[in-house]
Specification:
Structural class: alpha/beta
Order of helices and strands: HEHEHEHEHEEHHHHEEH
CATH topology of the largest domain: Rossmann fold
Bound molecules: guanosine-5'-triphosphate, magnesium ion
Number of strands: 8
Strand order of the largest sheet: 3-2-1-4-6-5
Shape: elongated
CATH superfamily of the largest domain: P-loop containing nucleotide triphosphate hydrolases
Strand content: 5-15%
CATH architecture of the largest domain: 3-Layer(aba) Sandwich
Amino acid sequence: MGIQWYPGHMAKTKREIKEVLPLLDLIIEVVDARLPLSSRNPDLPALIKGKQSILLLNKADLADPEITSEWIRYYRSLGEVVLDFNAQAGENLKKLARTINEEEKKLTRQKASLRLGVFGIPNCGKSSVLNRLVGKSAARVGERPGITRGRQWVKRERWEILDTPGILWPKISSQEVGWKLALVGAIKQEIFDLEELAVYLLGWLQEKYPEGLMDYYSLEQEDEPVKLLEEIGRKRGCLIKGGEIDYSRAAGLVWSDFRSGRLGRITLENPPTHSLSQ
Ligand SMILES: Nc1nc2c(ncn2[C@@H]2O[C@H](COP(=O)(O)OP(=O)(O)OP(=O)(O)O)[C@@H](O)[C@H]2O)c(=O)[nH]1
Ligand SMILES: [Mg+2]
């Protein structure tokens, strides 16, 4: 069946960004470090029209650190201001603050306050980043996409920071990208099938991180992903009456193991290799 996706939100997104843009001095674009390209909205540069922005690879604690370094090199080679971040633990907070100050110096007009806008697709950690920047839980965060409903300004000394709902919708360019966005929690669960997602993940892991997968679930031999799901379900006691496998529960378990990092630090896409030689 795949992911049923209707990107009907772009017009609204454009309007909302156009409304707030004149108020902002600097943009913080938050993406998921496990998906540093596909969790970016390709229309953002055109929407923010040359405004300075900082690209934050958030949830770096869940991503493969080597690949994160490669992504940073890649984006730097394209002239972007980029750093990895972990909003949950506040890692790299000082570096982010320093980067914000450096970027502020490049602004033509210095003002009494600095207005920052935090943008990104749903569930990438925008509100968590904002909370880190202001040093308190000013904005609600949550595991599902769509937690932040409206815009919210929060102040800390000279900084005024705007939290936005996930108004930047990811661009699903293929089923593959769709599944990956679902895996990192950017897509509402109602529009995809959890068992299909788990089967996709198991197949992908089998190809890219086979040892981690086999070790974590003590699986004996590689098999079709759906068979692996069955085995995991059996091993973890996901059973329904009569001893049959509860695939739905097993799928939820696999997805949760991935999302929490229990399957290891995993990045779902690599930077284009041709630019890395620079
Ligand atoms: N491991 C980890 N989890 C994070 C990080 N940043 C945010 N989270 C978690 O990711 C989930 C989403 O965070 P939010 O800050 O609500 O994300 P958001 O982008 O504001 O989401 P919406 O408002 O729904 O668009 C929460 O469960 C956070 O605790 C991080 O750097 N590492
Ligand atoms: Mg939010």
